[in-house]
Amino acid sequence: MKVGARRWRARAPTGGPWRIGARRWRAHIGPHMTFRPLQIGIILLATATALIHIVLALPTNLIMFYLNGLGYIGLAAALYLPQFAAYRRIIRWTLIGFTAVTIMGWAIFGERSLIAYIDKLVEAALIGLLVVEMRKEGGSA
User: Fold this and answer.
1) Could you give the count of Cα atoms lying within 13 Å of 1 in the half-sphere of its Cβ?
2) pLDDT, tens digit, for every residue of 86-102?
């Protein structure tokens, strides 16, 4: 072997530039998040009311129902995504307001059916859990 020539050898995947990228990626998404029962309840209720709205929209193609379902899914997801942790209080208030406006819209324009009443119970429970979560985290309600 020549003097000054480097000898190639395989490196174990414990170092190198890919590790720096992984660290940055982990810092971007935040630490591993565990969900408490309260958060699971909020996610389940938001998903339930979203699915109810989307399923009710299917036969008649009601755009407002599709958008309402997507709004619940988007706000519930944003509430617990680590990227939006700094905005969690604002997102929670937005979800409470979104749910309240949905209930008021139904009270003014909505059809009175069993599924509608069940959905309003789900939405009222969602508001209740969001308020409980806010108080647990020290926010004013």
Assistant:
1) 5
2) 999 999 999 999 999 99
Cβ neighbours around 75 below 10 Å, total: 19
d(CA 124, CA 28) in angstroms, rounded, equals 34
Q: Which residues of 25-43 are buried (b: 16+ CB within 10 A; e: fewer)?
A: eeeeeeeeeeeeeebebbb
Q: Are 105 and 97 in contact (CB under 8 A)?
A: no
pTM higher than 0.90 for the full model? no
What does the alpha-carbon distance between residue 1 and residue 3 come to, in Å, rounded to a whole number? 7
- CB of 95 closer than 8 Å to CB of 79: yes
User: At residue 141, what is the residue type?
Assistant: A
